[in-house]
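Standup notes
- HV: blocked on the assembly model, inputs below
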Amino acid sequence: MAQIFHRSTNTLARVSIYGSVFVLLVLSFVLYGLSKSPYYTEVNEPKDQPVPFSHRHHAGELGIDCRYCHTSVEDSSFAGLPPTKTCMTCHSQIWTNSAMLEPVRSSYATGKSLEWVRVNALPDFVYFNHSIHIHKGIGCTTCHGPVGDMPLTWKANTLQMSWCLECHRNPEKYVRPREKVFLPLYEPPANQEEMGEKLVAEYKIPEVKKGNLMLTNCTTCHR
Amino acid sequence: MSADRASPIIEPGHSFASVTDQISAIVLGRKTPRGWWIGFAISFALLMMLNIAVTYLFARGVGIWGINIPIGWGFAIVNFVWWVGIGHAGTLISAILLLLRQKWRTSINRFAEAMTIFAVACAGAFPLLHMGRPWLFYWLLPYPNTMYTWPQFRSPLVWDVFAVSTYATVSLLFWFVGMIPDLATLRDRAKNRITQVVYGVLSMGWRGSAVHWHRYETASLLLAGLATPLVLSVHTVVSFDFAIGIIPGWHTTIFPPYFVAGAIYSGFAMVMSLAIPLRKFYKLEDFITMRHLDNMAKVMLATGLIVAYGYMLETFSAFYSGDVYEKFMVLNRWTGPYAFFYWSLITCNIVLPQLMWLRRVRANTLVLFVLSIVVNTGMWLERFIIVVTSLHRDFLPSSWGMYWPTQWDIYTFFGTIGLFLTLFYLFIRFLPVIAISEMRGLVKEEEGKR
């Protein structure tokens, strides 16, 4: 009886068995890499806005306090986006003829809001509150990155759950004194761990390591 | 006793060639029988109904089903447990009976294993469909993820994932490895090129050399060893889904053994439901003899009595505990709104199967077939009673409710029967339903006796 398969089939069979293991491995690495890549997370990718607003200029160079625009950050879950009239407190006096600011003036004239492009958005099934983080000594730049140095704003962190939990499990690595929370540029001191431990105790932050699971309880964020 | 023992596990007068001819002809025969087409068409129509039901489910969500608090587990979980249970007989026949050297398993193990795989496929679909967002099913698996969390390993629902997926993998491997020599037989007997190539690829270069046989035997034994604990562990874990919960009617220690017995009971009933028509239409009475049916009826009788003991003990411990909720649960099953289903279950699972004590009944294929369907129904009702009656009367009367399936529950359930039968029809048509190589072994032994 004639052979059904050519001799090369033997090699082909072996290669396909080992090959499939290899392909599966590579595929899982690629998927893992993609889930961490800026292509998927949008981290470090500046977004175009209707007006090229620069946090570096306003917060970094001019030193305007974060709360001047994001007024509700201390009292509310939402930090707040400024209405056009907040822009106009200064820009009715300076740069009044700037072409760049034309959308701001027309928004002010017509009463139609500027439509900013959202940079940091959490999924709807996450309950997040700005005020509690501010009051427990978590600075703006801890999550939002070096805002005082951003010509156009970008997302500085993935906002993935692993990132949230990293801090909820080890708050002492990130906490800072309350008076430094609103600094637009901040470098943690060399003795962060030591200071952090102290602040965690002082601010009564529940510590997972000491058995208080409040910060890692599912229902803390997924209500 | 002596009469049963004397009746053979393969009718006399068969040679190597006649066994091979008759079994491989089902696959390689030119003409597909008309009965096959009719059966396949009906099953396929049911499968398409499943398709529609699932598509609509994905579009609208689980709200189209009858489930709502307090009964969050409706048909989906009932059907899941029922299908997983059915699979167990296949594993018992192929693994445990192999290790116990029960020769009578030879002619039924192939299609019983196929039944296991198809039943597990149907079962596996239900927990996924029951998820609110089935496209995120992979969250059940522990893998490095962006959430920094593991699945809740303290939950039996996670154990279920491992139990059922291990079970599916081992069963599939066992089935396939066992089939390789037969696939090679089909390859060698195939007349046209396409058939040769397809069976050639599937038989993975089998030439029947001594080395091949040696490895084949070793692999079969290893897989049988792996599959044996699964017969007990899978349904034990499934029973934990209930027993770990503190709901009256679920929270009892009898659940694991009683679930395993029930699984084997329903599984043998399903093997019987498949074997009786199969041997008749394909004239396989020489291979699947009355001895097989008789033995299976006896296994059903034994496991059925274990199940009956489970029901008794459930009732006993409810009253013995003195717990008001446990007692109420039992009384509510007897007289509550689902009492009709409870008493139907007792009739189907305990009363009617006692007929199998009679030899005349065990020798009558029609009665056996009807009884096997009755037991399958009874075992489905058992899961319905466990899931629904336990949930619908909670500790607080203010949170009591009722559950009735919607049309979509029913379409999905019968749809999976369609899936099961479609796969089974394809299996009958394209793969050897009886292990040819093992049957040749039996022929040799029979000759040796003479």
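- HV (later): unblocked. Chain B has a mean pLDDT of 92. Chain B touches chain A through 13 residues (CB under 8 Å).
- Next: hand off to the docking folks.
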